[in-house]
Amino acid sequence: MRLPSLALAATLSRVASASLQVVPGGTWTASNGEALQAHGAGLIQVNGTYYMVGEDKSGGSSFQNVNCYSSTDLVQWTLVGAVLSRTASGDLGPNRVVERPKVIYNDKTQKYVLWMHMDSGSYGEARVAVATGDSVCGKYQYIRSFQPLGRESRDMGLFKDDDGKGYLLTEDRKYGLRIVALSDDYLSPTTDVFSWKLDGGSRVEAPAMLKLGKTYYMFASMMTGWDANENQYTTSTSLTSGWSAWKKFADSGSKTYNSQTTYILKTSESSAIYMGDRWLKDNLMASSYVWLPLSISGTSVSMKNYVSWVPTSSFAAWQAPPAENSYEAEKAVYGGKARNVNCSACSNKLAAGYIGGPDKGSVTFSDIKSDIDGMTTIRIKYLNSDSGSRYANARVNGDAGRKLAFLPAKGDPASSTLNVNLKKGADNTIVIEGVGTSWGPDVDRLMVPVQ
Ligand SMILES: *[C@@H]1O[C@H](CO)[C@@H](O)[C@H](O)[C@H]1NC(C)=O
Ligand SMILES: *[C@@H]1O[C@H](CO)[C@@H](O)[C@H](O)[C@H]1NC(C)=O
User: Fold this and answer.
1) Which of 20, 178, 253, 368 is 20 to 30 A from 2, comparing alpha carbons?
2) How close is the Cα of 339 to the center of ligand 2, in Å?
3) Helices and strands of the chain, counted as H and E runs
4) Last residue of a domain, one of 290, 318, 346
């Protein structure tokens, strides 16, 4: 459906003044002040809002919740709630594995249908599970788990075709990767549609399907445990035959920029965004999200890496990151007992340490420049040598601030994103301070878009 012209005009003006950025691999703080927990996620768009449904790993690798977040700009995410949560026993009980939740909407039953990989802690069950919801981000009814058509299933994806037919993409590790048709209500697998036999390449994990025009694009990864590999794609104009040879789409040797496919978001009839997970196997909750625009021309797909990029409001187009100024913490003004700490990988080899804590350490950056009035994404470069998140309150131009999370980052400074409104001119002020008396991250510098 097209937007009425008034809404379109409003949307376009937002594009002109906003440069919210997607920062692959950064800490993305959601509306609840915590790092987004939606690993192995799928997206679904309902009435112009994107919903992201993924694994909550905040309590470790065992199933805790399948979370649902919403966003209209793909950058700022609101935690709506858990669509499934741990129960006392059974499939959703303690020490269970629930991975790669994906939701599609069934027009006939008017239910949102959620499929996921369901397993024991040792991955010995190799099942799928199904649940349904009346609203996209509400509580779902858990139905059952099983092996689809009697076969093992580990990584999985879902695909809804233009004609309303639903398909399960399933890793049958003993055989290969399969496309299996679903019943009209999407609750059961019915028949095999196509399969790729396990070969030297072993492209069986992380399947995700995109359709642009009449062409299907199937993405998948190799099998290298939690470590990243060179993910690949194949195309066809039919689900049942004619699939091309598998090819890489990211730069060779980059291991898909150290990520694994989870979902491909279609943004127009000729564009799509790659969504991957950068898994940290020893601390899964600190795994981050690598989202990058795909370049698609006919049956050719490629993807470049960016520190950040700007999704425009139509999402079909995107822009490279704006020019940035950098502001060093050690040149800013310290409050409380904040002070310089050595940081060999930081710019100038220094960072602001002792942010927060009982003495309320803080760092105040003044004279921050912006060429426009409007929302932008500032990257706070930081270190956090803990195994859990640290937090800071970020105040902008005298406001009360917002809580930001900083996932573990040892060695090289990582980025946590701060989405805020800046004033045109050169007198914006940003204060990074503690939350309560807990310790914040060590802050290396701010990277601030000029426009
Ligand atoms: C989408 O918006 C329409 C019109 O406002 C409304 O009737 C419908 O219930 C909405 N659908 C969902 C799933 O929210
Ligand atoms: C930081 O590095 C300098 C120069 O190497 C050294 O003199 C100083 O002791 C170091 N400070 C700390 C706290 O390690």
Assistant:
1) 20
2) 12
3) 2, 33
4) 318
